[in-house]
Model the fold of this input.
Amino acid sequence: MKKHSYFERTKTVSDSSFRRRMIFPFVIFVVLLAGGFFAWKWLNDQPQDHMILKPLRKTLEANEKVFKGTLGKNKESKTYTVADAVKNVKVNGLIGIQDTIDASKWRLQVIRGAGDTLKISLDELKQLPKKDIIFDFKCIEGWSQVTHWAGVSMRDFMEHYHLQGFEQMQYAGLQTPNKKYYVGIDMKSFLEPQTILCYEMNDAPLPMKQGYPLRLIIPVKYGIKHLKCIGTMFFSNSKPPDYWAEQGYDYYAGF
Done:
């Protein structure tokens, strides 16, 4: 009878031990793979909430709560000098922009209630104190630019037109005159000190593609919230319609 050498016996034991050690990781791998497959299948079977699966929308809403908690009473974006501002400002979208707007006929319509709409001309807005803001404008497309804007502080606007009562509501909504673009903004961000109703860019009237005659500049938000060519403003305790949130993007869109 042939005897196995010490090396052969050791190799046999080692191979057997190796196979036993590999069984457990393999079983774990199979379980995780199966779990991932069934989780993916479950997720894709869930109903949608404005073009995004409900569990993913819930995740975005959880993120929103976290970001809201980090937004202090006086959080402000970093500001720059006029020399830092670019001269050629990018356009971050043209949805809702009209080819021409007659500023003499245009009015900012602030809905205070059913049958109660305040209508404000551009000249009337320009009578209020002017505020400049130079900050790093961030777009969800991945680019940013230091840009120079000027207009009326949102806080001054709300106070001048006796709208302070609406500051206790949770949201503000904005729409273009043709209602093709619209945003909803949490009130805390809406009333940040740097938020302005903007009518100038680089010390000149807004170009048509940048939202003439009036747009929103809100430095604590990404560009999708900076609605161009404001037609209507209103206030609500429920989330107003928001164009990009309906396409599956984050409703909060802040940082």
The two ends are 78 Å apart (CA to CA). The mean pLDDT is 86. Residues 6-44 form the longest helix (39 residues). The longest strand covers residues 144-153.
